[in-house]
């Protein structure tokens, strides 16, 4: 326990030392006259209520309007937010956070521990009906499950305000990565009086009161969100950027055109265009690792095809895919071929040595795949017929076509099934598939956000891969001083049983205006804060 | 005529009801629901959501409550996906935008289309005629999802004259209106031209010319009105099509209009928004079909109700 405590504290101390101010502007920098930053949103913001939001785009807005206990720096390390630091009890189940006393809401009221208590209870409260209520359960906060089920009153939640600036959280099992989970928007505080006054309209511009570095001045659904610097924010003196504007543009290519016309400071690069743009704009096109993994999930459950119950067949399918072609020829954006589940750049994670990844080249893998198929009784004379299901998208389609050709080489006849998103998801959740395209994005920067998914009790294990050994390893990892060896063991089980076909680890490929500074370059969650940004004079 | 109008309005109400019930049932028959996501929700969380939005009631009760709320309070309920907003707010914010570029497009399409059609017919088989026909065929075959990115490329990136999208005043209206009106304009021009040609060959025009009327009077006073009949039957649905929005315009120009919201609501299974927009479009379609029928009677006295 002590080890863990030390880890958390030292991480914080490090953060404090390197990021003492909001925007870290080096001496001698000439700032531009215009301090405004315009970024791209693919879709309309579904909600800017911290406890209701479910989207990455929404989180980008939330982080600027609200502030949670901790923030992340450009390397994904925790830095103080409203909390200055915390201590953990000997048994690892009670966290006590010390909150700063100069944090204010945008209406001038002080931010107190009670605001967090209110927000967390609100997240779990069945009356709120938050889609992210399960996050309280994931955080193992005491009584969360019973409250969500309606069996207990929200006031029984394991969070209390010791005084205005001390917050105490009780969790049911020790979680080494608990502090990392607090960066998530659903844990941000909200002000009870404002919600009660405006009810469902409290998130409208003009009504919304936040404690972040910016306030909401305009939200035109599906068009734009505008945020202005908040003068009551505790670190507003060090905040350089005056205005943040998010433009909704539903088409990636159109967004790129508007970036090139100077209307945006940051856009995602559409698939396949990174090499060209990198050559043309070497200082603007950047690729950074992004906390998501792309796989084909195999249905190994009762409703799945008989052939997929054989681990040899599953391994053969995984071996036959040439991932280099997928990333180098189709995606071309700095994504990395994957031979395991957890994203390579997740903090504190290292992939274990895996023979199919490290000791074989693609030719050897293909040979082995043919061998395994022959052993299982399949071959050119007796081909295995499987369907590969994917949701509507040009990229998924291209990858699926390539994969079906690669699988043909080992005698698998693949039928491609394309469905729109909701149908695809619905079929997966009803085990109505053979192989299905799936992607998972980590909720926080730690390997368990991936590995927990394949436990038999996870609720997201659509392929119904149930393994007692795997469950045990993941259970043990929760209390281990150093969970890495157990995470590696879990990855080895996955590589051996192969309930998924790993394809690639995501990367964010962006065009970023040359005069913008302060965006994270090394944070897999791409957690960025407007208060860290500044624009330099050309 | 008044009796006829009243009768049509009386028919409109059951028509809308049938529309509501069928859409409601179809929508619920589609796989997945508003809360289906890659992170399958724990059953208890899903139950809380279904309870909050009344999705745990039997279907007949849901339809009943829905219609009752509309009739008694004009309340279309909360959006299941855009949870900070009600359907009324979403339509209230998006429809005026759609209506603005829709009406402008309509005006442009009718003015340019009719003028072009009349000019082509009057100068039949001249260079002007060929140019007008060529132009309208070109405009018709160029779909707006091709035209929209080209417009942005030219006017935003290359020339730097217009903002590439958004809804921030008249300069952001220009490209959406061009992209939306072009193909309608082309159709109107073609219909006007052929109908005008037919009218110009008819007896009453010959009589008018024989009376020695100046040509512009013949065209404007005697030919134009009867030539508009087929155009008007086209304009009714076209008008509804334009003012209820275009998903292509909304996507490429980020207008925040209702067209994108409608398509999204179907893909997101946002039952409430989808019903709201369906009813809006249904009501508009019924209304403007009625308007067209009444206009018919005004233009062509031979039509009796």
TrEMBL record, chain A:
<protein>
    <submittedName>
        <fullName>Peptide ABC transporter substrate-binding protein</fullName>
    </submittedName>
</protein>
<dbReference type="InterPro" id="IPR039424">
    <property type="entry name" value="SBP_5"/>
</dbReference>
<keyword id="KW-0813">Transport</keyword>
<dbReference type="GO" id="GO:1904680">
    <property type="term" value="F:peptide transmembrane transporter activity"/>
</dbReference>
<feature type="domain" description="Solute-binding protein family 5">
    <location>
        <begin position="78"/>
        <end position="460"/>
    </location>
</feature>
<feature type="signal peptide">
    <location>
        <begin position="1"/>
        <end position="22"/>
    </location>
</feature>
<dbReference type="GO" id="GO:0043190">
    <property type="term" value="C:ATP-binding cassette (ABC) transporter complex"/>
</dbReference>
<dbReference type="InterPro" id="IPR000914">
    <property type="entry name" value="SBP_5_dom"/>
</dbReference>
<keyword id="KW-0732">Signal</keyword>
<dbReference type="InterPro" id="IPR030678">
    <property type="entry name" value="Peptide/Ni-bd"/>
</dbReference>
<dbReference type="GO" id="GO:0015833">
    <property type="term" value="P:peptide transport"/>
</dbReference>
<dbReference type="GO" id="GO:0030288">
    <property type="term" value="C:outer membrane-bounded periplasmic space"/>
</dbReference>
<comment type="similarity">
    <text>Belongs to the bacterial solute-binding protein 5 family.</text>
</comment>
<dbReference type="Pfam" id="PF00496">
    <property type="entry name" value="SBP_bac_5"/>
</dbReference>
TrEMBL record, chain B:
<keyword id="KW-1003">Cell membrane</keyword>
<keyword id="KW-0812">Transmembrane</keyword>
<feature type="transmembrane region" description="Helical">
    <location>
        <begin position="273"/>
        <end position="299"/>
    </location>
</feature>
<keyword id="KW-1133">Transmembrane helix</keyword>
<feature type="transmembrane region" description="Helical">
    <location>
        <begin position="9"/>
        <end position="30"/>
    </location>
</feature>
<dbReference type="GO" id="GO:0055085">
    <property type="term" value="P:transmembrane transport"/>
</dbReference>
<feature type="transmembrane region" description="Helical">
    <location>
        <begin position="173"/>
        <end position="192"/>
    </location>
</feature>
<dbReference type="GO" id="GO:0005886">
    <property type="term" value="C:plasma membrane"/>
</dbReference>
<protein>
    <submittedName>
        <fullName>Oligopeptide ABC transporter permease OppB</fullName>
    </submittedName>
</protein>
<dbReference type="InterPro" id="IPR000515">
    <property type="entry name" value="MetI-like"/>
</dbReference>
<dbReference type="Pfam" id="PF00528">
    <property type="entry name" value="BPD_transp_1"/>
</dbReference>
<feature type="transmembrane region" description="Helical">
    <location>
        <begin position="101"/>
        <end position="122"/>
    </location>
</feature>
<keyword id="KW-0472">Membrane</keyword>
<keyword id="KW-0813">Transport</keyword>
<comment type="similarity">
    <text>Belongs to the binding-protein-dependent transport system permease family.</text>
</comment>
<dbReference type="InterPro" id="IPR045621">
    <property type="entry name" value="BPD_transp_1_N"/>
</dbReference>
<dbReference type="Pfam" id="PF19300">
    <property type="entry name" value="BPD_transp_1_N"/>
</dbReference>
<feature type="transmembrane region" description="Helical">
    <location>
        <begin position="142"/>
        <end position="161"/>
    </location>
</feature>
<dbReference type="InterPro" id="IPR035906">
    <property type="entry name" value="MetI-like_sf"/>
</dbReference>
<feature type="transmembrane region" description="Helical">
    <location>
        <begin position="231"/>
        <end position="253"/>
    </location>
</feature>
<feature type="domain" description="ABC transmembrane type-1">
    <location>
        <begin position="95"/>
        <end position="292"/>
    </location>
</feature>
């Amino acid at each position: 326990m002590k080890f863990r405590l030390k880890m958390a504290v030292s991480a914080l101390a490090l953060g404090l030392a390197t990021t003492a101010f909001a925007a870290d502007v080096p001496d001698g920098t000439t700032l531009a006259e215009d301090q405004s930053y315009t970024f791209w949103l693919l879709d309309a913001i579904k909600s800017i209520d911290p406890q209701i939001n479910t989207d990455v785009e929404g989180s980008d807005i939330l982080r600027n309007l609200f502030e949670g206990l901790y923030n992340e720096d450009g390397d994904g390390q925790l830095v103080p937010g409203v909390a200055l630091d915390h201590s953990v009890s000997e048994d690892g189940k009670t966290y006590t956070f010390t909150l700063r006393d100069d944090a204010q809401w945008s209406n001038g009221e002080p931010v107190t521990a009670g605001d967090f208590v209110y927000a967390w209870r609100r997240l779990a409260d069945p009356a709120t009906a938050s889609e992210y209520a399960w996050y309280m359960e994931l955080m193992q906060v005491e009584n969360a499950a019973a409250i969500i089920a309606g069996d207990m009153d929200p006031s029984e939640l394991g969070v209390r305000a010791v005084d205005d600036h001390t917050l105490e959280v009780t969790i049911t099992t020790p979680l080494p990565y608990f502090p990392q989970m607090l960066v998530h928007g659903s844990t941000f505080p909200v002000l009870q009086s404002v919600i009660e006054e405006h009810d469902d309209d409290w998130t409208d511009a003009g009504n919304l009161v936040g404690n972040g570095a910016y306030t909401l001045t305009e939200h035109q659904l599906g068009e734009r969100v505008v945020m202005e610097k908040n003068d009551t924010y505790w670190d507003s003196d060090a905040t350089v950027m005056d205005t943040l504007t998010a433009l909704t543009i539903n088409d990636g290519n159109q967004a790129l055109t508007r970036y090139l016309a100077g209307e945006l400071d940051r856009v995602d690069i559409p698939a396949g265009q990174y090499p060209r743009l990198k050559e043309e704009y070497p200082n603007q096109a950047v690729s950074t690792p992004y906390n998501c993994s792309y796989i084909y999930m195999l249905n190994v459950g009762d409703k799945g095809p008989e052939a997929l119950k054989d681990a040899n067949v599953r391994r053969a399918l995984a071996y036959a895919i040439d991932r280099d072609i997928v990333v180098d020829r189709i995606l071309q954006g700095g994504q990395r071929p994957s031979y395991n589940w957890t994203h390579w750049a997740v903090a504190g994670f290292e992939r274990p040595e895996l023979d199919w990844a490290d000791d074989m080249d693609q030719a050897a893998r293909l040979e082995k795949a043919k061998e395994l198929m022959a052993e299982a009784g399949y071959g050119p004379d007796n081909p295995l017929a499987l369907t590969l299901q994917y949701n509507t998208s040009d990229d998924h389609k291209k990858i699926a076509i390539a994969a079906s050709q690669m699988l043909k080489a080992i005698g698998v006849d693949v039928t491609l099934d394309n469905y729109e998103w909701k149908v695809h998801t619905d079929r997966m959740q009803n085990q109505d598939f053979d192989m299905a395209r799936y992607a998972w994005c980590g909720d926080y920067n730690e390997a368990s956000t991936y590995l927990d998914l394949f436990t038999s009790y996870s609720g997201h294990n659509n392929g119904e891969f149930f393994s007692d050994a795997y469950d045990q390893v993941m259970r043990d990892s929760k209390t281990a001083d150093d969970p890495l060896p157990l995470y590696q063991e879990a990855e080895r089980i996955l590589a051996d049983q192969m309930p998924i076909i790993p394809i690639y680890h995501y990367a964010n490929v962006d065009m970023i205006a040359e005069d913008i500074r302060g965006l994270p370059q090394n944070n897999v969650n791409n957690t960025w804060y407007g208060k860290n940004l500044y624009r330099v004079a050309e | 005529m008044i009796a006829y109008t009243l009768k049509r309005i009386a028919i409109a109400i059951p028509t809308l009801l049938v529309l509501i019930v069928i859409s409601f049932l179809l929508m619920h028959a589609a796989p997945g629901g508003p809360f289906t996501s890659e992170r399958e929700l724990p059953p208890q969380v899903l139950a809380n959501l279904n309870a909050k939005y009344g999705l745990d009631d039997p279907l007949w009760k849901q339809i009943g409550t829905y219609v009752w709320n509309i009739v008694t309070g004009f309340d279309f309920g909360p959006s299941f996906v855009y949870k900070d907003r009600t359907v009324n707010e979403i339509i209230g914010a998006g429809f005026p935008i759609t209506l603005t570029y829709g009406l402008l497009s309509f005006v442009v399409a009718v003015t340019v289309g009719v003028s072009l059609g009349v000019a082509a017919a009057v100068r039949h088989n001249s260079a002007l005629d060929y140019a007008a026909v060529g132009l309208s065929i070109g405009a018709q075959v160029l779909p707006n999802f091709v035209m929209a990115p080209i417009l942005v490329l030219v006017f935003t990136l290359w020339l730097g004259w217009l903002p590439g999208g958004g809804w921030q005043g008249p300069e952001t209206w220009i490209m959406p209106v061009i992209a939306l009106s072009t193909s309608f304009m082309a159709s109107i021009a073609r219909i006007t031209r052929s109908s005008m040609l037919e009218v110009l060959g008819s007896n009453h025009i010959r009589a008018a010319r024989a009376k020695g009327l100046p040509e512009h009077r013949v065209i404007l006073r005697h030919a134009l009105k009867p030539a508009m009949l087929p155009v008007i039957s086209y304009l009714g649905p076209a008008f509804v099509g334009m003012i209820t929005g275009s998903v292509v315009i909304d996507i490429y120009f980020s207008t925040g209009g209702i067209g994108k919201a409608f398509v999204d609501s179907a893909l997101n299974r946002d039952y409430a928004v989808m019903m709201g927009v369906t009813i809006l479009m249904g009501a508009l379609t019924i209304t403007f079909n009625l308007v067209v029928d009444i206009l018919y009677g005004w233009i062509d006295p031979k039509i009796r109700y």
